[in-house]
Fold each of these.
Amino acid sequence: MMTAVIYTIRHVGGGLGHSFYEYLLKAWLMSDKTDEEGKKMYYDALQAIETNLMRKSSGGLTYIAEWKGGLLEHKMGHLTCFAGGMIALGADGAPSDKTGHQMEQAAEIARTCHESYARTALKLGPEAFRFDGGVEAIATRQNEKYFILRPEVIETYMYMWRFTHDPKYREWGWEAVQALEQHCKVEGGYSGVRDVYASTPNHDDVQQSFYLAETLKYLYLLFSDDDHLPFDHWVFNTEAHPLPVIRKDKTDRPNEVE
C-alpha cells in the first residue's frame, strides 16, 4: 500500500503513471464491485493525492500539482485533467461522508481545466498550466503552450455531465467543438497548434490517433443520451475503449454496442 501512495505522489500528474489510478477504480467497477483490494488501493491513493498534491490557488482554482525532486511544482498538465472524471466516477462508491466532497473536488477540477481553455486566445488548452509567479491556469513556458487535440478535459466534461446533468458541461464541450472547428480543422483532417495564446493558429500538421479514438468519442458521448453505453454496464479504459462490467450472476448481460 505504501508503494501505491508513494507512486501517487510522484506520478499522478503525467503520462508515466496516471492510468494506474483510474485502473484501480475501474478494476473494482468492472468486477461488479467485488475487487475490494482495487477499491481500497484507489481510495487510499486518492487520499494521498488530496493531502500531498491537491491545492487551491489564491483565485479559488483547485489544481493537482506535481511532485518533483522532493519539491511541489505548482503546475498542472492537460493529462491530469482526466482526474476530474475519475474522481466523479469513484464518488458513488466512496464512504457516504466522502461522496459529496469528492463530487465537489471533481467539479472544481473540471472548472480549473475549463479555465485553462478559456484563458487562451484560441480557447484551446495548453499542454500544461501554472499557478505561480502571479498567474493562474496559464502556461508560462513556450514548450507548454501547444495543444495536440488531447481528450482529457472533454473526458471530464462527459463524466460530470452524466453524473450531474449540469448544462454547463455541455456548454463547455460545445465551446471546445467550436474552437476545434475554427482553429484545428485543416484540409486533411485536424491538426494540433503550437501556441494557444497566439491570435492565429500555427498548425503542427499532426492529427494524433487519440483524437479520433478518444476526443471525438467523448464529445459524442457528452451529447448522447445516458442510456448509450451506460456506466452500469460499461467501463471505459484510458484509451476510451468500452469494456463490459462482469456480472456476478451472469444473467444481467451488458448492452450490445450498436
Amino acid sequence: ECSPYAAHLYDAEDPYTPVRDLPGLCFGFCSKFHNKCRHVLKYLTENQLLLDTSGRDMPTFCSIVDLSDQDYCYPNVLKSTDLNSNLGQVVEDPRGCLQICLTEVANNLRNPVLMLHSGDETHRMFIAEQIGFVWVYLRDGSRLEQPFLDISGDVLTTPWLGDERGFLGMAFHPKYRHNGRFFIYYSIQFNSKVEKIRISEMKVSRNDMNIADPYSERVILEIEEPAANHNGGQLLFGRDGYLYIFTGDGGKAGDQFGKHGNGQNK
C-alpha cells in the first residue's frame, strides 16, 4: 500500500538518520510480523544486527525497527485520521489495496529537472535534462527520437557531482497553442570566468510542432551569479499573465552577499 507519508517510514526527511533497510514497524504489528514472517528477513536486508536480533530477541528487534514518532510507523501511518483526513477520495481494488501508487512514465534520463505540458491539448509531455536537452513524450509514453530543444553546447555544466548549474527552467506561454512562444532559463559562462543565468524567449518551428526553432532565441534577461549553487531555475506564469523568475539567493554557505544576503533582500 502506498501513502503520501511513505518516506517517513524510513525517516527519509532526517538526513542524519542512517539509511533504513526496513520500514518503521509499530511495535504491535512488528511482534506479529516477527512471529509469522521473520523467515523472509534474509531476503529483505543484509543488516546483520537485524538478522541476529530477529533470530533470538523479538523485543530488541522490534525496538530497532520502530520509529520514535508513532504516527508514522506502519500501519499507524495509514490509520491516523490527522494524516489521512484530507487526502481526497481514493479508490480501492477488490482486495482493498489503495490505488494511489506511483507509475513510472520515463526513464534513462540524465538529471531530469522538470516535466511539463504545453497546454495545447496535444497531450504531449516535455521533460528537460540539466545538460540542455528537452524531450517530447507522446500520450502513449513513447519518446520522440529528436529532441524538442538542444542547447547543450551553450549551457554551463560541469562534471562536479551535485552541480546546480545547467538548464534549469522552462515555461510555455499561456497562449502557446496560438503563438508558439516558450521561455527557458539556463546557466552560461563568459570568458571562462563570469557565470550568468540567462532567460530567453524561443518559438516552436513553423514546420514541426515537436521541434523548437533553434534560431528564434531572444535573450530577455541575464543576471551575474556570484556562486555556483542556489541558482533557482523555476519559471512560471501566474494567473495574472506575468512570467515569474525564481533565481535563488546566489549561493555559498550562509548567503553571504550584500548587507543582509540576497535571500532577505526585497
